[in-house]
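FORM 12-B: Structure-to-Sequence Request
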């Protein structure tokens, strides 16, 4: 099989109502991506996810530096193509951020083609380990700009829908407000629901030591991204002091940083995101690395779960998967949760194919 053509796209899908966490505000979810065509008729879709900022730089990178390496090549040579892209002309200025998100989009499209050509959903193509579905936890009721009333209404509704895990954002200017919101949420959802909080890098080490300890009383399943994601040493110190597990990984761009986080015991739940770590090729390596340390994988859904549902289903050391339903309506086979579990996809491919009308509706480039 040969790649004959590739074209990039940017979609902006509205988020209603707009949301904030401690460092981000978003009105749209951005998909910066690529469609790769082959001489056997298979078309692969891959994308990365953004807060609808910087997408143009991602697709510029794909068009100028990655597409020329793809034309005429066999998509089944994905690991060789990954190396060519990763260690090619962009290596001098890349290795994380924009270039790795661009690489992720291309890599995902290649795996989509391979699974389609093998007539299997990606999770089966990868040797699926969980045919019974994947436990989902819901993040979409806990935004930082929600009033306390709305927060409690939303987490109650999520539990009512059958979810057994909820996550809320913290990182208010006054941590006493975080404490008050966490206390109210734990009372609302009861003791049997898994409860996680996400700081989105907002705290200093001192704040994290102090307030992480205070918040332990709410039986947190994990404390997410308490510090700057480049501060492995700070997370190690925190992990040594707290009795709540540390989760992070959505801003970690390659396996070397994950190796150090895991090796030094600075993370317990590894939230490696396929749309940021350079795609499925690198994601699988991080998952294997974590397995050797008995560290759990629980991805951040920069893809909103479409691709990760396949990867988690095929990974023994993956526990559950985040759920945020902002973009599911644009996909031919949307990620679907029933009674708190992802129902695994049945169509061949990586569940990245977009409905043509939705593609046109939200396309901005
Ligand atoms: Mg997070």
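FORM 12-B RESPONSE
SEQUENCE OUT:
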């Amino acid at each position: 099989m040969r790649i004959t053509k590739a074209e990039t796209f940017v979609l902006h899908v509205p988020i209603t109502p707009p949301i904030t966490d401690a460092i981000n505000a978003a009105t749209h979810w951005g998909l910066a991506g690529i469609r790769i065509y082959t001489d056997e008729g298979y078309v692969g879709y891959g994308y990365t996810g953004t807060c609808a900022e910087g997408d143009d730089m991602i697709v510029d990178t794909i068009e100028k530096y990655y597409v020329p390496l793809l034309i005429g090549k066999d998509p089944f040579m994905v690991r060789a193509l990954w190396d060519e892209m990763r260690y090619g002309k962009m290596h001098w200025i890349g290795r994380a951020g924009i270039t790795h998100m661009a690489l992720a989009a291309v890599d995902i499209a290649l795996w989509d083609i391979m699974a389609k050509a093998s007539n299997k959903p990606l999770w089966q193509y990868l040797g699926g380990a969980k045919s019974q579905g994947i436990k989902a936890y819901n993040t979409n009721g806990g935004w930082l700009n929600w009033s306390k009333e709305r927060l409690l209404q939303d987490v109650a509704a999520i539990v009512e829908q059958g979810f057994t895990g909820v996550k809320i954002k913290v990182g208010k200017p006054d941590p006493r407000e975080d404490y008050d919101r966490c206390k109210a949420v734990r009372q609302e959802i009861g003791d049997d629901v898994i409860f996680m909080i996400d700081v989105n890098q907002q705290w200093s080490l001192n704040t994290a030591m102090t307030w992480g300890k205070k918040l332990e009383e709410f039986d947190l399943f994990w404390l997410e991204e308490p510090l700057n994601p480049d501060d492995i040493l700070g997370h190690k110190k925190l992990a040594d002091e707290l009795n709540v597990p540390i989760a992070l990984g959505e801003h970690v761009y390659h396996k070397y940083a994950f190796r150090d986080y895991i090796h030094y015991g600075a993370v317990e739940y590894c939230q490696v995101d396929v749309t940021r770590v350079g795609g499925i090729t690198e994601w699988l390596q991080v998952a294997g690395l974590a397995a050797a340390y008995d560290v759990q994988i629980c991805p951040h859904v920069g893809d909103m779960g479409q691709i990760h549902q396949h990867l988690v289903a095929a990974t023994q050391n993956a526990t559950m998967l985040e759920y945020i339903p902002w973009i599911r309506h644009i996909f031919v086979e949307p990620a679907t949760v029933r009674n708190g579990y992802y129902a695994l996809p049945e169509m061949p491919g990586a569940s990245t194919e977009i409905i043509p009308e939705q593609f046109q509706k939200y396309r901005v480039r």
